[in-house]
């Protein structure tokens, strides 16, 4: 069973996370069978702000969980996290050691990981594999078992 994840990054810090995102997606696919989408890296259309947000929220709706890299606090990610939580999505929040913790995101996250480098992050994700995948696959099964209307 494939699990879908929406990954949130700061758009401002996009270039810092390009390589990180590639490695994270490969790791998630290989070790968790999670297919990830990142609005920051995957959305290419030029549209007005309302259409942009509608598209982002639709992608969150299609996901089983939300993964948040929030080493640098930004407002847009908080909106995505709040929306995902209201929709019953599991929230996985991680940030580099020494960065400021987002108290609001931390308060509604299901899993929080402080990491020193990407290897450390991967080790901690592996340690939390059961918690990450718990209920994510069952939500996916419920979706596919629901009759079309």
Question: Which key phrases capture this entry?
Answer:
alpha/beta, five-stranded parallel beta sheet, 19% strand, disordered C terminus
Description:
With 149 residues, the protein is an alpha/beta fold. 53% of the residues lie in helices and 19% in strands. The protein has 8 helices and 5 strands; from the N terminus they run βαβααβαβαβααα. It has helices spanning 14-32, 39-42, 49-61, 75-86, 103-108, 118-127, 129-133, 136-145, and strands at 3-8, 34-38, 65-69, 90-96, 111-115. The chain has a 5-stranded parallel β-sheet, sandwiched between helices. β4 (90-96), α5 (103-108) and β5 (111-115) form a beta-alpha-beta unit. The two termini are 23 Å apart. Residues 138-149 have low confidence and may be disordered.
Question: Short summary of the structure?
Answer:
This protein has helices at about 15-30, 40, 50-60, 75-85, 105-110, 120-125, 130-135, 135-145, and strands at about 5-10, 35-40, 65-70, 90-95, 110-115.
Q: Report Rg.
A: 15 Å
Which of globular, elongated, flat, extended, rod-shaped describes the shape?
globular
The main β sheet shows up as: 5 strands, parallel
N-C termini distance: 23 Å
Largest sheet, spatial ordering of strands = 2-1-3-4-5
Total number of helices? 8
Give the secondary structure arrangement, pairings included.
Layout: E1 3-8, H1 14-32, E2 34-38, H2 39-42, H3 49-61, E3 65-69, H4 75-86, E4 90-96, H5 103-108, E5 111-115, H6 118-127, H7 129-133, H8 136-145
Parallel strand pairs: 1-2, 1-3, 3-4, 4-5
């Amino acid at each position: 069973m494939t699990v879908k994840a929406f990954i949130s990054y700061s758009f401002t810090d996009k270039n810092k996370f390009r390589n990180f995102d590639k490695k994270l997606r490969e790791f998630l696919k290989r070790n968790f069978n999670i297919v990830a989408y990142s609005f920051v890296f995957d959305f290419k259309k030029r549209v007005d702000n309302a259409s942009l947000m509608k598209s982002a929220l639709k992608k969150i709706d299609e996901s089983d969980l939300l993964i948040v890299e929030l080493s640098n606090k930004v407002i847009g990610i908080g909106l995505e996290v709040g929306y995902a939580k209201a929709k019953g999505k599991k929230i996985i929040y991680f940030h580099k050691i020494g960065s400021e913790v987002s108290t609001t995101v931390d308060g509604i996250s299901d899993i929080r990981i402080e990491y020193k480098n990407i290897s450390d992050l991967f080790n901690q994700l592996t340690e939390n594999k059961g918690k990450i995948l718990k209920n994510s696959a069952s939500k996916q099964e419920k979706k596919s078992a629901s009759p079309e209307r």
